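thought: fold this chain, then report.
action: predict
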Amino acid sequence: MTAGKPLTVALIGASGLLGRAVAKELAGIDGWRVVRTAHRRADADSVGLDICNHDALRTFL
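observation:
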């Protein structure tokens, strides 16, 4: 990690059972920025993303 620069993590599937638990753990780590994604259950805290849509995935990344 670069000093002074946060590490950004793209969490694919953050609205699922496992994704919610991982998001909660990552949110507690100083210096990490978590970008949550969800396909069908996107909310105000996540980015709507269909990983099967190559154009949308390319735009997101």
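thought: worth noting. Residues 17-27 form the longest helix (11 residues).
final: tokens above.
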